[in-house]
Write a structure and sequence with these properties.
Elements lengths: L2 H15 L4 H8 L17 H7 L3 H16 L30 H12 L3 H13 L10 H26 L5 H18 L6 H12 L4 E9 L3 E5 L15 E4 L2 E5 L5 E9 L14 E9 L5 E2 L23 E10 L8 E8 L6 E5 L2 H6 L27 E7 L3 H7 L8 E2 H7 L4 E6 L3 E7 L7 H7 L4 E7 L5 E7 L2 E6 L10 H7 L10 H13 L5 H10 L1 E4 L5
Parallel strand pairs: 5-9
Antiparallel strand pairs: 1-5, 2-4, 2-7, 3-4, 6-8, 6-10, 8-9, 11-14, 11-15, 12-18, 13-14, 13-18, 15-16, 16-17
Helix pairs in contact: 1-7, 2-4, 2-7, 3-8, 4-8, 5-8, 6-7, 6-8, 7-8, 14-15
């Protein structure tokens, strides 16, 4: 690249840079911190166009409007840069566009059609102009990001202006779109300016608030995951408490899952918790941990700084060094299908570890203790519900002593008026019920319905025998009900309400920990099966699908 060209560009860049707005410039300047988005569909076209498509519309429009007049009058006496381009193609070509497409994108696509290779010339020229430069920027995070983005964009705009005019395509919209696509590609790979990391840290610290909470799915590798400020810490055998270890750079947690996702919740507290919550958890341990820098998180996707543009919601420890206490809660390590964790973190001076709960078999094994007996969890047989069409909301009612037609009437529907189940499912109108006659036992299913949990329906359905139902919905509301001989014996929300003193209801609930919210729907279905002698099985749903018949509920009950 000749000195004359470099000098011409250097003279024009300050003029262009002065009119670039700081907000879109900062958005461009932060591109290195964001995962690269690819346009959909990913059509074959130059990288400059693909990069332009990934930019927010507001960035493209604000830059175009801000620089349009300046570029239109910009005089850059530069030597030839596009002499290697082939002549414009002969003949005609088709070109599709829409009213919603930004003018800069449309004109850049057209520029690619009429002057093939021009976009690549601008990209190569801009890359050579910025090569080896070191940008010095001062100020807060936004100011440094804006200076970074504006610097690259201004050079790309000048380079695009020179090349496009030489190629006989001086339209400003195409120049702006080309420059934005070129600058975005460069900025995704360019190192951030000196001082940006410190400015970002100060911004994060100024905006950090307590308390914070959230949850995520963490990919476990080799039976461990970590709360860490950076790289994965070294760890030992977990023999002390069987669950977690403090380490240099974080806290490592031993899982039952060898490889794969587990749910991890994080709470960063403003004050130490008053009590240790062990209900619903099998292992709970407190550890002290020293943060060297702050902003520790879990999972590989949490290892980069928070995005100032607000595109990611993440929960981390406070973004400053200090001593912290971490309470690790674990459930399901012996049963990875339900495995989950909660980490509670608060500032506290170093203290010895404290074990609040130690109940799972893995923990005993790691501590070198005799393993407790395997816990019978009959609810596990119903976990298929979470993978079925009933997972979000439904009521399952099982009735003995009545025919299918009589059960339909108990729901307030007319057995003489069957309708296609698929049509009722898609209509989102009146409630409806499907029934399956199983030789003296009738299973009734309501998708997103609740009539089987209401007293008039249970009373009518149980008049010649028994009826029991389990209701759940998307808001985590549940209701478990039992009726016999036309009398409702119990109807309550598992874990909150009080079941009756009826012996048969008690037998149906025996051994089911309803206080533990996990598998609550599945536990209710176990109780329904115990009380009526018949449960709901996956093949029942398959039979109902083959029948394809349902009955509209009139609203009775």
């Amino acid at each position: 690249m000749g000195e004359n060209l470099a000098a011409a560009v250097a003279a024009a860049v300050p003029v262009v840079r002065a009119v670039i707005p700081p907000a879109p410039a900062a958005a461009l300047g932060r591109l290195r911190l964001e995962p690269e988005r690819r346009p959909f569909p990913d059509v074959p076209e130059p990288e400059v166009l693909k990069s332009l498509r990934t930019l927010p519309a507001w960035v493209v429009e604000r830059v175009h409007g801000a620089v349009e007049l300046t570029l239109g009058s910009l005089d850059v006496p530069a030597p030839p840069v596009a002499s290697a381009l082939k002549p414009p193609p002969d003949g005609t070509f088709g070109f599709l566009t829409s009213d919603s497409e930004a003018e800069a994108l449309r004109e850049t696509r057209l520029l690619h059609q009429v002057r093939p290779g021009l976009l690549d010339v601008v990209a190569d020229l801009t890359a050579r102009l910025v090569a080896g430069e070191t940008l010095t920027a001062e100020g807060d995070e936004a100011a440094i990001a804006a200076a970074h983005g504006a610097h690259h964009l201004a050079i790309a705009l000048v380079a695009a202006t020179i090349a496009a005019r030489e190629a006989g395509s001086p339209g400003v919209a195409g120049i702006v779109g080309t420059a934005l696509g070129v600058a975005a590609n460069l900025l995704r790979a360019a190192p951030m300016p000196d001082g940006y990391a410190a400015a970002l840290r100060e911004k994060v610290r100024a905006e950090y608030r307590l308390p914070q909470s959230g949850s995520t799915s963490v990919e476990v590798r080799n039976h461990v995951f970590a709360l860490t400020e950076g790289g994965f810490p070294a760890f030992g055998s977990f023999a002390d408490n069987g669950l977690a270890e403090s380490a240099d750079g974080g806290v490592v947690v031993r899982t039952g899952t060898e490889n794969g996702p587990v749910r991890v919740g994080i709470r960063v507290l403003a004050e130490p918790p008053e009590t240790a919550e062990t209900l619903g958890w099998e292992e709970v341990v407190d550890l002290s941990w020293r943060a060297k820098h702050g902003s520790a998180g879990v999972g590989e996707h949490l290892a980069t700084p928070s995005w100032p543009g607000g595109h990611r919601v993440r929960v981390t420890t406070p973004p400053w060094p200090g001593d912290y206490r971490v309470r690790v809660h674990a459930y399901g390590r012996d049963d990875p299908e339900t495995e989950s964790y909660d980490l509670w973190i608060w500032a506290a001076p170093p203290e010895p570890p404290v074990v609040h709960a130690r109940a799972d078999r893995l923990g005993h094994r790691l501590r070198g203790e005799p393993e407790p007996p395997v816990v019978d969890r009959p609810e596990a047989a119903y976990r298929w519900i979470g993978r079925s069409r009933l997972t979000v909301a439904a009521t399952v009612t099982v009735v003995t002593g009545l025919s299918a037609e009589e059960v339909v009437r108990a729901f307030g529907a007319d057995p003489a008026r069957p309708e296609p189940a698929e049509e009722l499912r898609e209509a989102y109108g009146d409630p409806w019920v499907e029934v399956l006659d199983l030789d003296g036992v009738v299973v009734a299913i309501e998708e997103n319905g609740y009539y089987g949990s209401r007293a008039p329906v249970l009373t009518a359905a149980s008049r010649a025998g028994r009826a029991a139902s389990m209701f759940w919905n998307v808001n985590a509301l549940t209701r478990l009900s039992f009726a016999r001989a036309g009398e409702v014996l119990a109807s309550f929300e598992p874990g909150l309400g009080e079941p009756s003193a009826d012996e048969e209801v008690g037998a149906a609930l025996a051994g089911l920990d309803l206080q533990d919210y996990r598998d609550r729907t599945e536990k209710g279905l176990v109780a329904v099966e115990r009380f009526t002698g018949r449960g709901l099985y996956p093949e029942d749903l398959e039979d109902l699908d083959r029948l394809g018949v349902a009955y509209r509920i009139s609203g009775r009950g």
